[in-house]
């Protein structure tokens, strides 16, 4: 179990206050679930979100739309990005621990290679010392963006990429990885039962 600093002023934030209740539940869940990683950019499918929040899958989809631009979701790759996660968790003082930077780097490297969210992440957090080894084909953030966003983007070679497109144990602590495997297995069982 990891500790998350969830800002209590969220409740008085005008953007948050206007959200429907299911979107509020989903927002808090995405900030605090065991699926999240140091980057706040992680694989998570709709069925798992629905199962763990108790929201119907259609409500989860609507809530994800309502949470934009603070939360982005790619349904094709089943990727969630809680956009300000790194800012609020690790950059309050303007400095970030080198160990945290290394952990964020590892989290980005296990995601689908050159995913547009990675390019956006590297642009937003350009002050981090992350050498992402693959060219970035950005989805347009910022406007006019393209290949090579972020500090040192596209630099280096394979650097040991494992070719994993799902959550990796190297990004989370061993107890969390065990919980993740159990939840993933339960989700798969639910999918099979529903068919």
Describe the structure.
Helix 2 crosses helix 4. This protein has eight helices and three strands; from the N terminus they run H-H-E-H-H-E-E-H-H-H-H. The chain is globular. The protein starts with 13 loop residues before the first helix and ends with a helix. A three-stranded antiparallel sheet has the order 1-3-2, covered by helices on one side. The model is unreliable at 139-177 (pLDDT under 50). The chain has helices at residues 14-17, 21-32, 46-53, 57-66, 85-90, 98-109, 116-124, 174-194, and strands spanning 41-43, 71-74, 79-82. Helices cover 42% and strands 6% of the residues. It has two domains: 8-86, Arc Repressor Mutant, subunit A (Orthogonal Bundle), CATH 1.10.10; 94-194, no CATH class. It is mainly alpha-helical.
Termini separation: 32 Å
Largest sheet: 3 strands, antiparallel
Number of strands: 3
Mean pLDDT: 77
Question: How many separate helices?
Answer: 8
Helix content: 40-55%
Order of helices and strands: HHEHHEEHHHH
Shape: globular
**Proportion of beta-strand residues:** 5-15%
Radius of gyration, whole Å: 17 Å
Q: Helices and strands: which structural class?
A: mainly alpha
Number of domains: 2
Unreliable runs = 139-177
Give the spatial strand order of the biggest sheet.
1-3-2
């Amino acid at each position: 179990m990891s500790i998350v600093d969830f800002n209590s002023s969220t409740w008085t934030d005008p953007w948050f206050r206007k959200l429907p209740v299911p979107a509020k539940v989903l927002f808090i869940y995405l900030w605090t679930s065991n699926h999240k990683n140091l980057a706040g950019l992680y694989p998570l499918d709709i069925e798992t979100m629905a199962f763990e929040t108790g929201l119907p899958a259609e409500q989860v989809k609507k809530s994800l739309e309502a949470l934009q631009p603070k939360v982005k979701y790619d349904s094709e790759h089943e990727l969630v990005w809680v956009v300000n996660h790194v800012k609020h968790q690790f950059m309050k003082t303007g400095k970030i621990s080198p160990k945290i930077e290394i952990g964020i780097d590892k989290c980005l490297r296990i995601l689908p290679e050159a995913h547009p969210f990675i390019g956006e992440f590297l642009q937003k957090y350009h002050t981090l010392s992350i050498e992402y080894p693959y060219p970035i084909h950005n989805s347009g953030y910022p406007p006019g963006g393209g290949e090579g966003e972020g500090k040192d983007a596209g630099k280096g070679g394979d650097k040991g990429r494992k070719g994993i497109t799902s959550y990796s144990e190297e990004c989370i602590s061993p107890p969390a990885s065990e919980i993740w495997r159990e939840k993933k297995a339960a989700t798969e069982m639910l999918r099979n039962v529903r068919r």
